[in-house]
Amino acid sequence: MFYLTEQFFSIQGEGKYAGVPSYFLRTGGCNLNCPGFGAEYEVDGEIRLGCDTYFAVDSSYAKAWIKVDNSDVLISTLKKEFNTIGYNPHIVITGGEPLMYHSDMVFYDVVKWLIDEGIEITFETNGTIEIDFEKYPAYKSCIFALSLKLANSGEPAQKRIVTQALENVQTYAKEAFLKFTIDAQLVESTARDEIQDIQDILPELDVYCMPVGESRDTIWKNDKAVFEFCMKHNFCYSDRLHIRVFDTTQGV
Ligand code: SF4
């Protein structure tokens, strides 16, 4: 059994596949909180800090999440959706942290079905979950967008960097890349050193950097600094197309 917070057809807005029409499955729950990303939201009168997908992270929102306890039901929904779209789009499984559910059999059955249909799957993951690729071989056929968190996330290093989890992805997955969300302040301080520490673990992966921001306004505050940082260090700049186009609207 796992939780979905939303599912929708859109265009991938970030990373290596930015611009590709994609069907999104967003799971509920995360093993991190990332208060440093500074998205403010209110629960029962209390102001909390989190990331731009706090509604898929904070269990206070769980009442609105959809419980998926039968893979056939979700597969049937996906078949109908793809029929309406007219083709089988790239699937992005995001969160929260979707790989919290990697060993859940309902979740795994859906992943296996997608792979058997020849559908490309990208996991948007924080890279902290250790996957046994021999026990769950369908994950070998998936793409891993490793959206690792840096110091600006407000999470301690030992929680956000799990070396074995990263090495497993680099060894077994058919494709993976690194994606960092950074702000102007981090560019001026520890971003380069922090990314280097991660590249020491994952030397083969390309690096994409994108500006912090849950809205157009906050992205505008960081984009130029990140742009120049990428030029200086030979990283790929990734914009956040969905926020540029739709601002803070969810489900697009
Ligand atoms: S790991 Fe990702 S989804 Fe989880 S709290 Fe951090 S930014 Fe949000």
Secondary structure category = alpha/beta
Low-confidence segments, given as residue ranges, are none
The CATH architecture comes to Alpha-Beta Barrel
Number of strands: 11
Could you please say which CATH topology applies here?
TIM Barrel
Instruction: Name the CATH homologous superfamily.
Output: Aldolase class I
Output mean pLDDT. 95
Q: How many whole angstroms does the radius of gyration measure?
A: 17 Å
Mind explaining what this structure looks like?
This protein has one domain: TIM Barrel, CATH 3.20.20.70. It is an alpha/beta fold and 252 residues long. The protein has helices at residues 71-85, 105-116, 157-160, 163-172, 184-188, 191-201, 216-233, 241-246; strands spanning 2-11, 21-27, 39-43, 46-50, 66-68, 90-94, 121-125, 143-146, 175-182, 207-211, 236-237. The model has no long low-confidence stretch (mean pLDDT 95). It is globular and about 50 Å long. It contains eight helices and eleven strands. The strands form two sheets. Strands 5-1-2-6-7-8-9-10-11 form a nine-stranded mixed sheet. The two termini are 25 Å apart. Helices cover 32% and strands 23% of the residues. Strand 6, helix 2 and strand 7 (121-125) form a beta-alpha-beta unit. The structure holds iron/sulfur cluster. Iron/sulfur cluster binds at residues 30, 32-34, 51, 53, 57, 95-97, 126, 149. The site of iron/sulfur cluster has 12 residues, from loops.
Short description:
This protein is of the alpha/beta class and 252 residues long. The chain has helices spanning 71-85, 105-116, 157-160, 163-172, 184-188, 191-201, 216-233, 241-246; strands spanning 2-11, 21-27, 39-43, 46-50, 66-68, 90-94, 121-125, 143-146, 175-182, 207-211, 236-237.
